[in-house]
Each structure stands twice: as structure tokens, then as C-alpha cells.
Amino acid sequence: MPRTAGKHHITASISPFADVYAVILAGGSGTRFWPLSRRARPKQLLKLFGKQSLLQQTAQRLRGLVPPERTYVLTNTTIQQEARRQLPAVPRQQIIAEPTSRNTAPAISLAAFEIARRDPQGIMIVLPSDHIIAKPEVFRQALAAGCRAAEQGRSVVIGIKPMRPETGFGYIRLGEQESRDGKIAISKVIQFVEKPPMARARQYVRSGKYLWNGGMFIWKASTLISNLECYQPQMAAALRRIVSAGGIRSPKALRRLYPRLENISIDYALMEKISDVWAVPVDMGWSDVGSWAAAYELYSKDTDQNVCPSPAYLLDCRQNMIVSSKKFVGAAGIENLVIVETNDALLVCSQDRSQDVGKIVKELERRGMKDLL
Fold first, then answer.
1. Which residues contact 32 (CB under 8 A, 6 or more apart)?
2. pLDDT tens-digit readout, 224-281
3. DSSP assignment of 229-240, as one string?
4. Are residues 368 and 303 part of one domain?
5. Same domain as 166, residue 75
6. Reported pTM
7. Which domain holds residue 157?
8. In a domain, 221, yes or no
């Protein structure tokens, strides 16, 4: 991606939240945290960390920045009603069920057309709903900086400063710092990089020139639509037909036209193609909570580094994660395990194989064991 010459200083002094809208992505199939998560209870609907679900925490982080009436939630038909129940302040018609999954580009673009119809100058913040952010105030500062950059027609990605080499995330390659917004640096994006092998991930982290791509973006809705018309004209034309037929206010039109859209991510569809992309680097205590092992890192532990329910008795056990809501747990001599118990299923795996839970779910699908899905 070519760099733009010259440096700019952002001087906008008005509140960036006067015309800002939130788009929360809340799809999901409930595989990574099986057996606790299911199709009707994917990760973002679970209260894994505290009294609120991850979806509720995502909305809560926006309080004072984006009001519920300017919030849109893109989800699926299976969990739409539960999302509405968990977010009663968000207007029901703005919790939108995709008739079929078409990845992030169609979902985000549908929201952009709706926001542009409602507010031609509207800025949209796009956020996944299944992440943990331990430093919400730092996160809000980054959003403010990103919104002020988006006011100038820029496309902005919130980049996460990497804590370690990681092969499971995409990366963002930075150019030189181009501007500042208070204490926050804003840099031109040179390239979006796919998930790398470990040796290359180590190089990225050592260089200090790469960020993790957590899928958080900010644009004017009109900016996204202009880019969509340039780089994905067929999708743009199809979405205009949906809008002409009633848009999100016409479930019938959505069911008829939306499945015809291409199944493609926003990164492939747009972000890797457009040149005017800017990154706001931030250290906000971010985790995508992508597995039981990742969840283990976020929980408080006993003196033997176990995460376990109460009551329980663990004898000579170390570094285990045990989830059981009703049953007493007794264990002896186990190490580095994930054990999750529900009424109808039991998961036992080593922590370093917790990413393979999805393979178990695929086998359940192959066997037609729908009651466990």
C-alpha cells in the first residue's frame, strides 16, 4: 500500500461523538467455548467474566460516547431475540439478524447504508462483541482519536500493540507516524498482513512496526460507501437494491436479497485495497478470548495456578481450568487441563489443545448430534 507524503496535525476541537454511531458485530456459532457455548449461546452471550455478557460489556464500554439509539447490532436469526433481551436500551429494529452469514463486509456495509440514510455525515465505529478490554478508558481515548481522524474522510483501524508473537491474528504494518491526537500517535498503514508463521511473528514483534488487527474500524459511513462503490461495485449495487426495498425495516427484502451478497471479510473486500488507511495504536488490555486456554489467562487463580469452582478439592494439581456450575469437583495429580461440565456434556482437554474444541464440534455435526449443538 503506498504511503502518502507529508504530515498532518489533527486540530478538530468539536466533540467527535455528536454524529457517531456504533456497529456491534454479534454473530457466532458457539464452537470455541463448547460445551458451555452452543449455537443459541455463542461466546458473546455468555457471562464468562463478571455479571455481564461480553455483548453487554461491549455496549457498556460505549456509554457516554455513543447512545443506545445510535447503536446497531448485526447478529443472526438464532440469537437475535436473546441479543434484544440483553440490550433492552437499543431499539429493537436496530438489532438486525442477517438471514444468512455473509461475513463482515456485507454486514458492515449494510449498516453503513442505514447510517448514511439517517445521517449523511455519520461516523461509524465497528466493534466485535466477543473481546475483553481491561483498560476501557484507554480504549475510549483511542476511539475519540479515531473519530476525529475519520471526520477528515480517513479510514481508521484501531491497532493493538502486540504483547507476544502470535500466529492466530492478522497484523497491520505501520509507516512513519503522521500525526498526533493528544498523547495518541496516528500512523499511515502500509499493509494488512495475514496470519504469519511463528518465526515471522517474532520478527514483527521485534521490529515494533506491526500491530495486531482486532477488527475494530472507524469511518464516515459515506467514506465506506464510496470505497465500496469503487472496489466492490456489485456489492454496493446489491445493497442499494436492499435499501430501496426497505433496508433493515423490511425483513422480507433482507431474506430475499441479502443471501445473494458475496461472503467476504471487510479486510479482503476493502481494507487491503484502499490507500487512505490510518492506524491508532493502543495498549488497552485486549484479548479476543479465542479459546479456553485464553480464558484461563484472564481468570484469577489459586496458589497452584488453578482456576476452579467452589466448592472443590484439588490435590497436587497445577495450572488447570475447571468449570462446573453445580457439581463438587475433586481432582488429584492433574496438570494443564481444561475440564468443563454442563448438564449434558463434559469436555476434557489439555490447555495446549483447547483450540481443537472446534474439531469436536465438527464431529458432533457430522454425527448429527444436534442436541449437543
1. 43, 290, 291, 292, 357, 358
2. 999 999 999 999 999 999 999 988 888 888 999 999 999 999 999 999 999 889 999 9
3. HHH-HHHHHHHH
4. yes
5. yes
6. 0.89
7. 20-287
8. yes
